Structures are given as C-alpha cells and as structure tokens.
Amino acid sequence: MKNINLLGMKLQDRYARESLMLAERFIKKGAARVILYLTTAALLEAAKNDGEKEWIEAADATLWGDTKILEAAEISAKARYNEVEEKEFLNNFLRKMAKNHTAILVISDTEAHAQALKSELIEMQNGITVVGTMAINDIVGSQENIINEINMIAPIVIIVRMPFSMQRSWLENGRRYLNAGIWLGMPEDFSCVNKKEMAVEKVGKRILNVLFSRKVNKYKK
C-alpha cells in the first residue's frame, strides 16, 4: 500500500491482490465498508467540491478506473497498469462472489441503468448471485424505508453505479443502518467491460485526459 496525494486528496494505492484481501476482510466483519472506483472525471468533479473530496478521502479503499490516474500519481510499475486495464480487482472479486454464492444487490439511479450494470457484471462473471436491482430515482418513500427494504433483501455486497453526489448523499445518512458488508461504488462513467469506443468517445476521453493532466500539474506547483 502506498499513500498518494492527488488533486488535494490523500488516497491509497494498492495492488489488486491486496485490495481483494482487504475486501474479503470487510465482508467477514459485516459492517458496511465503502470501496470506490475512481475515474478521471470523478476526480475532476471532486476537486470542485470539498464535501465530495472529503467523502472520497474517507472511503475504506479506493480503486483506479483508468491508467491516467496512475500516471498522475507517478506510479510506474507495469503490473499496476495491467491490473487497471484488465480490471483485475473486479474480475477476481466477482469470481470470489460467484464461488461463495455471495448475495449481490445492484443499485443505480434508474432501472435501465441498474439492469445495464447487472448485465455487465454477469458478462464479467457468469454465476454471480444477483438478488435484486434497485433504482433510486424510481423509489417512493423515506430513506429509512428504502434501507429497511435493502436489509430485508439481505445482500452481502451492494454494487452501485451512479453519480458520486448521489452515493455520498445516501451514505452520509444511511451507511450506519446498512447491514451489507461492502458498498462497491462506481461513478456513472465507469464501464465494467471493455468495449470498443466510438470516435466521438475517443475524442471526449482525450479532452478529459488533457483537462485532468492540467489540473494535476496545477496542484503540483
């Protein structure tokens, strides 16, 4: 494990195997621990919001969603780049979950997004036990009632993909009431499966990377 400072945030870098061992310990302890996948877009957004920055720093573990973050953190080990590109942690984590028949709840902002995330997870690892999907925007009722519903489903792992601002809002008040072992949070731009990018997507990513590099360099000065 290596401590790094990125865009004013104090974060920790771990090899995939170390992160997997940590996740397994979290599950055994049974208290809702937060693991966040970070992307350049999510970090740029957090850099503009002190509350979100503090929330990311307070996560129990962080994972990198693309190699540009490794470059910004001045991490040069080739093995780390391969792990991030191949999403080694998520692949191995889902493989463990399938082997142990671990109950997984999938959450997103809409039902369409929740179903898309579920499909990607199953594509990565067939045989995982998805006990349900939940769309935050479609639920009527208080947060307390929704958390009670989640606890009745009794997932061990909750995998979430939606804006960090929504995840933060949810967890700040409700985390202590969740009985799940892990909240694995992904920003909305994180893709679980590697797919061919359209030309416009490639251009957008290049622009984002330039903005990210400029922001990182500004913090280093």
Structural notes for this entry:
With about 220 residues, the chain is of the alpha/beta class. The chain has one domain. Helix content is about 50%, strand content about 20%. The chain has ten helices and eight strands. It has helices spanning about 15-30, 40-45, 50-55, 65-70, 80-85, 90-100, 110-125, 145-155, 165-175, 200-220, and strands at about 1-5, 10-15, 35-40, 60-65, 105-110, 130-135, 155-160, 180-185. A six-stranded parallel beta sheet has the order 4-3-8-7-5-6. Strands 1-2 form a two-stranded antiparallel sheet. Helix 1 (about 15-30) runs parallel beside helix 6 (about 90-100). The longest helix is centred in the C-terminal third of the chain and has 22 residues, at about 200-220. The chain is globular. The two termini are about 25 Å apart. The mean pLDDT is about 90.
Offer a concise description of the structure.
The chain has ten helices and eight strands.
Mean pLDDT: 90
Helix content: 40-55%
Give the tally of β-strands: 8
Number of domains: 1
Q: What strand order characterises the main sheet?
A: 4-3-8-7-5-6
Secondary-structure-based class equals: alpha/beta
| Uncertain runs | none
Rg estimate, integer Å? 17 Å
H/E series: EEHEHHEHHHEHEHEHEH
Keyphrases for this structure?
19% strand, 10 helices, 6-stranded parallel β-sheet
Helices and strands, with pairings:
Blueprint lengths: L1 E5 L2 E5 L2 H14 L3 E6 L1 H8 L2 H8 L3 E4 L2 H6 L5 H8 L2 H12 L3 E6 L2 H14 L4 E7 L7 H11 L3 E5 L2 H11 L7 E5 L12 H22 L1
Parallel strand pairs: 3-4, 3-8, 5-6, 5-7, 7-8
Antiparallel strand pairs: 1-2
